[in-house]
């Protein structure tokens, strides 16, 4: 079956602009995660959605970052007033309700000029 | 806060060698540990997941061991091939949980040359 998909694959934006990154999880997966991978920082957790529960936002680095998950499926990560330090690969993962394994998408490479 | 460390950061070997990649974590109250592979410009692919009740897990030429009490895991790759070249990441979940975030090491970048 289809895996986790993310769009766009690459995004170049100017400092101060807002960007939206999209994640389509594997069908039927109830859990969805966003991570960020930047040079010198490794993979950092951003936010976690589980069903209808309140999301775990503890990894969001600032209030410029927000995420939504509509209808328990597609998720959008929004970064407002982008800064150069936001440049990174943003990875999405999903997990089925009874499983332990997170399945990752290919990521969106964000470059802020 | 859980901290995950991987050694070595990079490894370059000729084809056919047997390899050991190391991962250590600071909080041993984990339910499982996972090894991932990441190819350049791609997402992560899960290789092996070891439950805390297991000592090791095998898949083809890969064998992962877990010593929870000492906070260590190793990934053993037998008879390495150029196609094994990638970055290998280990990850553990939050203490006492299998559902939330994962904590990742910075990875071991492996190059296997013909």
Short description:
The complex is a heterodimer of chains A (113) and B (114). Chain A is an all-beta fold and 113 residues long. Chain A is 0% helix and 49% strand.
Structure description:
The complex is a heterodimer of chains A (113) and B (114). With 113 residues, chain A is mostly beta strands. Chain A has strands spanning 5-7, 10-13, 19-24, 31-38, 42-50, 65-69, 75-79, 88-95, 103-104, 108-112. Chain A is built from no helices and ten strands. The radius of gyration of chain A is 13 Å and the shape is globular. In chain B, the strands form two sheets. In chain B, strands 2, 4, 5, 9, 10 and 11 form a six-stranded mixed sheet that branches. In chain B, strand 7 and strand 8 form a beta hairpin. The interface between A and B is medium-sized, with 24 and 25 residues.
Net shape of chain B? globular
Which stretches of chain A are poorly predicted, pLDDT < 50 over at least 5 residues?
Answer: none
Averaged pLDDT of chain A: 93
Largest interface: A-B, 24 and 25 residues
Q: Based on DSSP secondary structure assignment, what is the total number of beta strands of chain B?
A: 11
Low-confidence stretches of chain B: none
Q: What proportion strand of chain B? A: over 45%
Rounded mean pLDDT of chain B is: 93
Pairing-aware structural class of the strands and helices of chain A?
mainly beta
Helical proportion of chain A, percent range: under 10%
Biggest sheet overview of chain B: 6 strands, mixed
